[in-house]
Predict the structure of Integrase zinc-binding domain-containing protein.
Amino acid sequence: MGRQTYREAENLIFRRVQQDSFPEEMSLLKASKPIPSSSRLLTLSPELHEAGDLIRVGGRLRRAEALDPTTMHLVVLDPMIQDYDSRLRHAGPERVFAEIRRTIWILRGREAIRRYQHTCTECRRWKARPVMPKMADLPPARLHLFKPAFHSTGMDCFGPLQVKVGSTPQKQMGDNCLTTRAVHLDLLTSIDADSFLMALRRFISQ
């Protein structure tokens, strides 16, 4: 389909939509009569273009020679958002609104887009926030209140944090009090069981 054929087909769809949405305004404009003061198009200074069959927004840009006439005088439509929302992969309302306003002026655009995207399944899926899981109850070892530090203790080897004694790298072990969060640090010469048990004995003796 050529570009001109596509444009003609698009204008035909716009014309039919306008005839369904604004029948009174269409007939009055064709007769060169003013539209009623209660019309939704009153503030847009509507004009007929394309051989008097398509309502477009008026305005004060007629002398702007560098602008495309379709950009200066946008087609007025009731909200038709689904196609743009789908092509833009369900972007936010401002992005969809900006893209539509390149060629079309839809009435109450932002509100209409937000209302549509609120009901769009894909938009709701992409904008959904993950449900935060409820944390489990604390184990009894974490609830020994009024006890001295390290009454309940967890031990872990973490690292490697490179600590050199002479030229030998060593790893570090940490002990964590489960109630007061006090921390005891000790150094392991290696990660084997003997080094761990010796560090544990030093910690218990303290």
About this structure: Residues 109 and 137 are 49 Å apart (CA to CA). The beta strands are 47-49, 54-56, 75-77, 104-106, 153-165, 168-177, 183-188. The chain has eight helices and seven strands.
